[in-house]
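are you around this afternoon, could really use another pair of eyes. what follows is a protein written twice so to speak, once as letters and once as structure tokens for the fold. i want to understand how the tokens follow from the sequence so walk me through it. anything you notice is useful, everything is just below.
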Amino acid sequence: MAKRLSKNLTSRYLEAAHRLQSKRARRKIFAYVESYDDVLFWSQLLREVETEEFCFEVMLPSRSTLCKGKRQALTNVMGEQLGGHMIACVDADYDYLMQGATDISRTVTRNPYVFHTYVYAIENYQCYAPALQSVCVMATLNDHRIFDFEGFLAAFSVAVWPLFVWSVWCYRHGYYKTFSMADFCNVIALSNLSFAHPEQALEQLRHRVNRKTNWLQHHLPQARKDYAALRDELVSLGVTPETTYLYIRGHDLCDAVVSPLLAAVCEALRREREHEIRRLAEHSVQMQNELSAYQHAASPFEEMLRKHTGYREAPPYRRVQADVRRLLASLSEQIKPKDNDRNSEKRLSDTPLRPAR
């Protein structure tokens, strides 16, 4: 019985249920997300755009199973259950850049009740360059700027941009086996990165990118007529050479680029703070107490990378919120005439009849 009822739990059902409530009650919109890790991100994003008329509740894809993932979250779309009171919130992955080349891409980019991150995934927001200095401060309690994260990730993005366009082209045209995301990650992964001399790693990266680009040009000559047009289209979609890092696979960016960099920078900042404590301590007991207190207060950078919200000023993040606001404005317009009609009827019913003359 419960299974049959859950199949009938659609946006239209929820809209009808709202009509039974007080007109002053906030209308709740249920938002399906892919997994546990997405709940906090989407909850914060949606809370910021709530109005006096509408609020959100973030849910996992299924209440009856432990199934997770984008396909599970979008299953409700296939069943035509989504609507103004039931939406899906998912990672964009490459589906945004595919622009309808696949069934899932068409659903993600064209269904008005499906909202996506625009960047590849939530991990990319966590790696947002302007926020990484704050991550270091949260982890080490040391605000000394010893590395330019924004400049480095901009240079990194420009270096991988030509190969990134190739990656999108291969996935759009079905050549993902020839050049997969795993292949792309192997090329862009940074090894032996020294934050004191990042130009050395960047130069090695440019060499690998050029070599792989030449290989692709030789093995996929049919891409010549489409490559330049695709590059321009990606720019029109908001992907610039300086922000490419936001659109590559999130966990590859985190594992192969940002985490090794943060590990080195945070280690240097911790050593700097501990050296300062040893230098200023008046005796060994004070030194041990201060070192113990500092180590207890500091946190692993991995934890801070997951928990920070410094990406909330990122243009793609604001773009997602603008999409949600448009939905809320549309829903508000839909319910206003009904409320006005009811108020008019109430005013008419409350008006006393004039005595006949």
